[in-house]
């Protein structure tokens, strides 16, 4: 293992991050008043699940959706923080329908229990936002033996989405499709998907592993949309890239990057509230009714990495993921 093969993923990730930050700064300078606050239709009676809704982008997504009248379930792995978040949102938005349900995405058992508890409530499900993530964690394994980025960011959401698919299908209609929104990141542009080493066990780079998990999410979102369209389901799947946002996601970056973030974050980075805007757009915008397989950034459709459109790779990843979580591969 050469030093270069370890350093390269980090260089690529910081390079793409730098480009996004520069783009955000230019946009801010050239378009004062951006981002605009769009007005979305009320969502009374609709139900959403947001993973990792206790802080950062997820928290602001939950808060906004609840303000629109949606009943939002926060799926999170810290009971105390979850209940505190619920109380905070209810204090800020009277009549907000928000609840917390425990779900540790690092544990397949916990995901199954979460889905069981959710289904026992007999709610419909109109929006699922796969938001939670970890970034640049040291080499560690989840309860099920997956590398942590791959296990939490990708496999956890893969299993959760598949277990909730029937409920989403039953809740979507021709004129009001149910929506799956998956958060990826610009790092997917510089990622490599190693199908023969998805757990990064041959060469562990935290940057490479995070980026790979974010590319896997894009590939599998496109594959799922393909499968849903083929069977005529009223469910859409879109991918969101929130930009570079000032949140705790950066707690594991190197000290120099932390320093730069601390000094310039207010100018260069989006606030968590701004960061949530594309997730909210993907979840409720009438413009996206019936439209799936889009990569959304700054509330606009854009192109994801060329490799993410590789249908053979999408298929192979999907099949392997089904095998890893022990569900049938429903490919036609
Ligand atoms: N911030 C950015 O610049 C940026 C850029 C591109 C993409 N994104 C993406 O945007 C999404 C939100 O990121 P963020 O910046 O808001 O991050 P954040 O502030 O760190 O929030 C991450 C959320 O994920 C939850 N989480 C972590 N591990 C979990 C687990 N095992 N089970 C359930 N929940 C878990 C966290 O809960 P705990 O508090 O309990 O750990 C937290 O609520 C992520 O998918 C991220 O990859 C962010």
TrEMBL record:
Pathway: Protein modification; protein glycosylation
GO cellular component annotations of the record: extracellular region; lipid droplet
SUPFAM superfamilies on file: NAD(P)-binding Rossmann-fold domains (SSF51735)
One GO-annotated biological process of the protein: positive regulation of autophagy
Record's keyword annotation contains NAD: yes
Subcellular location: Lipid droplet; Secreted
Recorded catalytic activity of this chain's protein: a di-trans,poly-cis-polyprenol + NAD(+) = a di-trans,poly-cis-polyprenal + NADH + H(+); a di-trans,poly-cis-dolichol + NAD(+) = a di-trans,poly-cis-dolichal + NADH + H(+); a di-trans,poly-cis-dolichol + NADP(+) = a di-trans,poly-cis-dolichal + NADPH + H(+); a di-trans,poly-cis-polyprenol + NADP(+) = a di-trans,poly-cis-polyprenal + NADPH + H(+)
Keyword Zinc belongs to the record: no
Molecular functions (GO terms): oxidoreductase activity
E.C. designation(s): 1.1.1.441
Function: Oxidoreductase that plays a key role in early steps of protein N-linked glycosylation by mediating two non-consecutive steps in dolichol biosynthesis. Acts both as a NAD(+)-dependent dehydrogenase and as a NADPH-dependent reductase during the conversion of polyprenol into dolichol. First catalyzes the NAD(+)-dependent dehydrogenation of polyprenol into polyprenal; polyprenal is then reduced into dolichal by SRD5A3. It then catalyzes the NADPH-dependent reduction of dolichal into dolichol. May also acts as a positive regulator of starvation-induced autophagy.
Protein name (record): Polyprenol dehydrogenase
Organism placement in taxonomy: Eukaryota, Metazoa, Chordata, Craniata, Vertebrata
Gene coding for it: ZBED1
């Amino acid at each position: 293992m050469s030093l270069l093969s370890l350093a390269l993923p980090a260089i690529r990730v910081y390079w793409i991050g730098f480009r996004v930050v520069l783009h955000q700064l230019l946009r801010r300078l050239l378009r004062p008043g951006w981002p605009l606050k769009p007005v979305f239709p009320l969502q009374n009676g609709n139900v959403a699940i947001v993973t990792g809704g206790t802080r950062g982008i997820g928290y602001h997504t939950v808060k906004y959706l609840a303000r629109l009248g949606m009943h939002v379930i926060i799926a999170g792995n810290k009971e105390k923080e979850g209940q505190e978040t619920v109380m905070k949102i209810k204090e800020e938005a009277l009549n907000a329908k928000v609840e917390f349900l425990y779900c540790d995405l690092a544990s397949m058992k916990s995901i199954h229990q979460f889905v069981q508890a959710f289904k026992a409530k007999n709610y419909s499900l109109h929006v699922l936002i796969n938001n939670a993530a970890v970034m640049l964690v040291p080499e560690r394994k989840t309860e099920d033996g997956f590398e942590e980025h791959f296990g939490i960011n990708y496999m956890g959401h893969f299993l959760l989405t598949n277990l909730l698919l029937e409920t989403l299908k039953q809740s979507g209609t021709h004129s009001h499709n149910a929506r799956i929104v998956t958060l990826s990141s610009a790092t997917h542009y510089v990622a490599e998907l190693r199908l023969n080493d998805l757990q990064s066990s041959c060469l562990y780079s935290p940057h490479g592993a995070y980026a790979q998990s974010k590319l896997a999410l894009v590939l599998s979102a496109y594959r799922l949309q393909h499968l849903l369209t083929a069977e005529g389901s009223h469910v859409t799947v879109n991918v969101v890239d929130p930009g570079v946002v000032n949140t705790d996601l950066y707690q594991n970056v190197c000290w120099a990057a932390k320093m730069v973030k601390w000094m310039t974050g207010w100018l260069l980075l989006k606030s968590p509230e701004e960061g949530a805007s594309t997730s909210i757009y993907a979840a409720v915008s009438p413009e996206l009714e019936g439209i799936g397989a889009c990569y959304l950034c700054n509330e606009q459709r854009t192109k994801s990495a060329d490799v993410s459109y590789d249908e053979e790779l999408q298929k192979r990843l999907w099949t392997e993921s089904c095998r890893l979580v022990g569900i049938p591969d429903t490919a036609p």
